[in-house]
Structures are given as structure tokens and as C-alpha cells.
Amino acid sequence: MKPYLQTLHDKYLRGWDRQTTVILLGSALLLTLHRNYSRPRVFRNNFAIYFENLPLAESYPYFYWFLTTGLSLFLIPMLVAMIGTKEGLKDYGVRLGHQKLGWCMSLAAWIFMIPVVLLAVKLHPPFLEKYPFSKVVGNSLLAFSLYQLAYGVYMFSWEFFFRGFMLFGLEKRFGNYSILIQTIPFAVMHFSKPLPEALGSIIAGLLLGVLALETRSFIYGAVIHWFVAITMDTVCVVLG
């Protein structure tokens, strides 16, 4: 038995490094936990009864979703990165990095996406049904603003996980292939979105990965992602 186990160890585990193993297994575990516990349905099934008589009760599952994502895809991965690997947080893109390139690309990408969003909504009406996730916040500027702030937490957490934790965490082992690796789960997480957005997530994952590597930061991708999301919600509220 012992020689056989040693053979299996040599065949499958020899050459594995700690950081790559932690990032890949951690990603699988964290995404599974996120999909099971950081979702609107969790709030509806367990907590909605305590909030049903409060104003804008329909929006609370989405606030829960956005804010708990800050835990599942940002805070916990940060702890895993700090404890499970020898890299510092700045090595995972938690810094401004090349600011001139980052801010210029953020502004340019957002401006470029405004007409794209308008065209997408006009040509594909299901966007109006999908966004914003909480329709009731569209009736109040204050509620809409608070909702977008919480949405920002979600977007920054999302970007840190894919373009920080996964991308930079796997870069040493896989080089530029880390862009492709993190794009796969990123696209999978968009399966429930309208088809144009689901397909577009593949391109977005690649481009945001390149931007993160060029700027050495996930922050600019988060800004782009957030501003485009706000634009989509705003257009759908106005046209809906």
C-alpha cells in the first residue's frame, strides 16, 4: 500500500506549489459558498419575514446579496491570500498601480460603453426586465443611490476575486494564461444573464484581465464594471 500511495503522490502531487494550490482550491470553495449563501433567495427564505413591513422591502434581498458578496468574494479571499500564501495584498492588485493608464482607460471604457448599453437595451428588450434587479428602487432617487453604493461593494468584490485573487494569484505559475483561467469562472457566473451580456462577459473577462496586469491593480476594472452597471440600471429605469 505504501509504495502505491508514494507512486500516486509522485504522479499527482509532485511539483505542486502552495500558492497555486491555495488559489485554485480556494476559488472553487469560495465560489461554491458564494452561490449558496450570498444570494437573494437566502434572504427571502430566512430573513424576509422580519422586514416585510418595512419600506422598500422588495429591495432588501439585493442589498443582502451585494453586501454579503463583500464577505464571500472580498474579505474572505483577502484572508485566504494573506494566510495561505506568502504574497502581500499589493501583490493581489490591492493598490492603485499605474494610475495614469488606469484612470484614462477607466474613463475611455465607460464612455465607450454608454452607447453600447443604449444600443443593447434598444435591440434586446430583456435587459429592461433584468435591470435593475430591484425595480422598486427606481421610484426613489435616495433608494436608487443607496442601491448603487451597495452595488459598488458587489462590483469591487467581484473584481477583486477574479482580477485580484485569481489573476494575480495564478500569474507566477501560469503567466498570461492566468487571464484565460479567471475568465472561465467569470463567464460561468454570467450564465443567468441575457445572452448578449453572457457572451460579452468572455470578452470583458479577457480585457479586464489585461488591464489588471498592465496597471498591476484590480481597482480600475472595478470602477469600469461599476460605472457600466450604474449606466445600465439608469438607462433601464428611464426607458422602462
Summarize the structure.
This protein has 240 residues and is mostly helical.
Question: Layout of SSEs?
Answer:
Blueprint: H1 2-12, H2 18-37, H3 40-46, H4 60-84, H5 99-123, H6 126-130, H7 141-174, H8 177-188, H9 195-215, H10 219-239
Helix pairs in contact: 2-4, 2-7, 3-4, 4-7, 5-9, 5-10, 7-8, 7-9, 7-10, 8-9
Keywords:
240 residues, 10 helices, mainly alpha, 75% helix
Q: Beta fraction of the residues?
A: under 5%
The quaternary state of the protein chains shown equals single chain
In total, how many beta strands?
0
Sheet with the most strands, sense and barrel status: none
The best one-word shape is: globular
Helical region count?
A: 10
Low-confidence stretches: none
**Overall residue-averaged pLDDT value:** 94
Helix content: over 70%
Order of helices and strands: HHHHHHHHHH
Gyration radius, rounded? 20 Å
**In angstroms, what separates the terminal alpha carbons?**
67 Å
Structural class: mainly alpha
Commentary on this structure:
The protein has 10 helices and no strands. Helix content is 75%, strand content 0%. The chain has 240 residues and is mainly alpha-helical.
